[in-house]
Design goal:
The chain has 158 residues and is α+β, with helices and mostly antiparallel strands. 47% of the residues lie in helices and 20% in strands. β4 and β5 form a beta hairpin. α1 packs parallel to α2, α2 crosses α3 and α4 crosses α5. The mean pLDDT is 94.
Amino acid sequence: MSKYESLLRETPVLLSEQADLPDKIKGLYVETKAVQAILLSRSLQTSTEKACILAEELGHYYTSSGNITDQSVLVNRKQEKRARNWGFEKLIPLSELVRAYIGGCRNAFEIAEFLEVTEEFLKESIVHYQEKYGQMVVLDRFTLYFDPLGVAELFEPK
């Protein structure tokens, strides 16, 4: 099952995959008294693109409140960032970066393809993890480096 299909199964609100949205808007979470819905732009071509946008919109469902479309307002920008970060951690938890490394991926293109995300989404998620953890983080017996992106495994002597 693709990541997009998995997210579809977890989506607790109405979803339109063929919304007529302005060019710059790829997805939108809408909440009114009558309905909660996620709209995905009909311009999205692949399930990979749809997964990345859906993850962020689910982030809005779980972390945002009110109309935050005016990004000149600081509190709205903070909610936007929180929703995007939720999406990054949903689609690319640190353990998935390790899994990609174990799977033989060694560059952003290979990792993005392996994890079924766009390269842009991967790069933005790495920036998020740098902001959260600094230049590296230890996960079990692995050290993940964010710049340059890489994973090192601790080998125990026998």
